[in-house]
Amino acid sequence: MNKRVPSNKRYQPTDYEHAANCATHALWIIPSLLGSSLLHFQSEDQWERVSAWVYGAGLSSLFTVSTLFHTVAWKKSHLRDVEQCFHMCDRMVIYFFIAASYAPWLNLRELGPWASHMRWLVWVMALSGTTYVFFFHERYKIVELICYTVMGLFPASVILYMPEQAGLCELLLGGTFYCLGMVFFKSDGIVPFAHAIWHLFVALGAAVHYYAIWKYLYAPPANPVRTSR
């Protein structure tokens, strides 16, 4: 690994770290596309199909955009502007991935009167986060981390109190992987391959959440009763 850089500069990975950054998310692009298709084919109504594709789009976009950014960053040469654009997209897509990950639960599970507003509030938060990245990308890194954390945890206040609790343990486990991974997200220059390790925690969290969505919202033997819409 290279030396740690000041907070106002971006860490420059070694070639080995670049390769690991690319591989640790590229490997999940095809599985995410196949998994999204599976949810679509197991959907029984329009809301399930819409939720499946919204979630699938967020999941596959996360791994695809991340892989493209890290590939360009590795082979950039004179592509400074392109790299910057992909870096912004890499940060923006995280907000939409978080919103998309909550979408199946918020759309397909029974929610209380106030909690139902979270269905659109998560997208307002995603749009706000994207706007922040557009104007203040890499300027206040700690603020970005706080925004990701708040958006990841705030909708859980609704999910945790749903009348149907099946899948809650998997949701908590996946969230734990994300939270543990953030330690490595901020450890470039301290821990070798820190960003690649962060990618692995993201993949683990996403895999656990996908399993929960498939098992408790889509798989025929475990389909819960849907709320009237």
UniProtKB/TrEMBL annotation:
The organism's place on the tree of life at top rank: Eukaryota
Transmembrane segments: 53-73, 85-105, 117-135, 142-162, 168-185, 197-214
Pfam families per the UniProt record, alphabetical: HlyIII (PF03006)
Membrane topology label: Multi-pass membrane protein
Keyword Cell membrane applies: no
Keyword Transferase set for record: no
Compartments (UniProt record): Endomembrane system
One GO MF term: pore-forming activity
Residues that hold Zn(2+) according to the record: H70, H195, H199
GO cellular component, one term: endomembrane system
Name of the protein in its database record: Monocyte to macrophage differentiation associated 2
Species of provenance: Hippocampus comes
